[in-house]
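tool_call predict_complex ligand=nicotinamide-adenine-dinucleotide
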Amino acid sequence: MLLKDKIAVITGGAGGIGLSATKIFTKNGASVIILDFDEKAGVKVEQELTREGFTVKFIKTDISDEKAVKKAFEIIANEFGRIDVLYNNASVFLGGGRDNKMSDLSSEIWDRVLHINLYGTYHCTKYAIPLLRLSGGGSIINTSSSAGQIGIPECDAYTATKGAVTALTRSLAVEYGPENIRTNCIAPAAILTEMVKESNLNDPRFDEKAFLEKGTPLRRWGLPEDIANVAMFLASDLASYLNGTIIVADGGITVA
Ligand SMILES: NC(=O)c1ccc[n+]([C@@H]2O[C@H](COP(=O)([O-])OP(=O)(O)OC[C@H]3O[C@@H](n4cnc5c(N)ncnc54)[C@H](O)[C@@H]3O)[C@@H](O)[C@H]2O)c1
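tool_result ok
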């Protein structure tokens, strides 16, 4: 029960890594508010976990829409009064040549990716901070990627957002540390979710065998819980002196 009595907001908490975090956070005692734009998945998770006796609230929210995020945090303030954790997890990777190298990247795709991945982080953090203050502090967990650590071709919009989130983690840590709000970041790679299908597995040029046997020291895909457990640690008081840290959780891919 590492998160007993904590109230956590998880963006993208209805799918992939976020869904795993929703389950792990609730099992460890947290009340979880999911902000996700996938209504079907969000309602399903809320119903299933509520039936199991956990406190989960789904609020359909597109994090790229500032008004919607503001409204969601007003609902949270009314119903929960405060929060202890913001897990900025939701992002998109637009595959199939849509996200690309800059010379082949349309401004529509650039805008869309930035609006979800980067503006989404801005919107949620902006409206979460007053509620974290009401708890006397808390934990913000941002999400970068291997694309924020090393050069990865043909996804420059995604990369720009993940580099920005890494940099913002450090400034938020310095700005809000004095208020006992710790900000850290997880940089995953190769976690088996819908996003990895979009970024790798659906690409006919991608050689899964070579990737696992030559590029991946642990010789396996990561699982959503491999990342959700790191998030749980960062959300918990065990990480009480971590602030401004980028945890690269990628099985060693970026050092290989
Ligand atoms: N899977 C990987 O290998 C990998 C690698 C590096 C980084 N990441 C990062 O980890 C995080 C989670 O990735 P994932 O693999 O679980 O992705 P995913 O696509 O499986 O799940 C993303 C979730 O976010 C939600 N979402 C997307 N856009 C949204 C929006 N505008 N508003 C609200 N909700 C939205 C989706 O509905 C979904 O539930 C992302 O930030 C991603 O960039 C993942």
